Amino acid sequence: MPSDTAHLTERQQKYFATMRATLEARTGKTLDQWVAIARSCPYSRTSDRVKWLKIEHDLGQNSAALVLHEAFPETSGAWDDAEGLRNALWSDEALRKILVQVTAVAQDIPGIVIGQRKSFTAFSRDVQFAAMRPVKGKGALLGLKLDPALSPRLMPPARTESWSERLSAVTLLPNAAAFDAEMAGLFKQASLNG
Q1: pLDDT in tens, 133-157
Q2: What radius of gyration do the chain's Cα atoms show?
Q3: Which positions ≥6 away from 55 have C-beta within 8 Å?
Q4: Please, which residues have CB within 8 angstroms of residue 170's CB and are 6 or more apart in sequence?
Q5: CB atoms within 10 A of CB 16
Q6: pTM for the full model?
Q7: The sheet that has 128-135: what strands, in order across it?
Q8: Distance between CA atoms of 45 and 63, rounded to whole angstroms?
Q9: Residue 179 carries which DSSP code?
Q10: 16 CB-near residues (< 8 Å, 6+ apart)
Q11: Is the pLDDT of residue 160 over 90?
Q12: What is the full DSSP assignment across 135-169?
């Protein structure tokens, strides 16, 4: 779990603190015991380790991530490198312009927290209200915590995204110009839900 909490909302910070504090009560093992178990894992890739902890030890996704962060801090440092994650995800110049356009609007919203994950950029206030990820060769997919019926440019997600299930509307932004006044207005409206 991230040690740099600047890119987390207060609610997310409390969640991670509670998860850490209640791990033993929820699982019957201390964090140190889980770290020892994780270090005995026969796999080296993080995704394989998570899967192993879930299948072999019945540990939930977020608890597994916490344990692996503690057991292998050298491989989980990406959580703390928001800029590195952002640069890797948005390395394409045209896609980066879309991110810049959306971020400029986001930064004018009081209480906004822009969080960077490996596969998407999250926008939150108390909770996440928007997220965006690149779509190779097509632009950027923007998810919003809105009813898709609000605009013909919005649609329900076609697949489950790795971001919050609360984001019930999506739109594909083929370029920065597509994030126009209407989309900026919808983005700001979604922020009222976050």
Answers
A1: 999 999 999 999 999 999 999 999 9
A2: 18
A3: none
A4: 141, 142, 143, 144, 148, 154, 155, 156, 157, 158, 161
A5: 18
A6: 0.68
A7: 113-116, 121-124, 128-135, 139-144, 169-173
A8: 17
A9: S
A10: 1, 2, 5, 8, 66
A11: no
A12: ETTTEEEEEESS-GGG-TT-B--SS--SS-TT--E
What domains, with CATH codes, occur in the chain?
A: 10-79 (no CATH), 82-191 (3.90.1150)
d(CA 38, CA 52): 9
pLDDT of residue 3: 47
Paired tokens of 44 = 């080296």
- Report how far residue 159's alpha carbon sits from residue 43's, in angstroms, rounded to the nearest whole number: 29
Q: What is the identity of the amino acid at 13? A: Q
130, 167 contact by CB (below 8 A)? yes
Bridge partners of residue 131, in order along the sequence: 122, 143
Q: How confident is the model at residue 99 (pLDDT cuts 50, 70, 90)?
A: very high
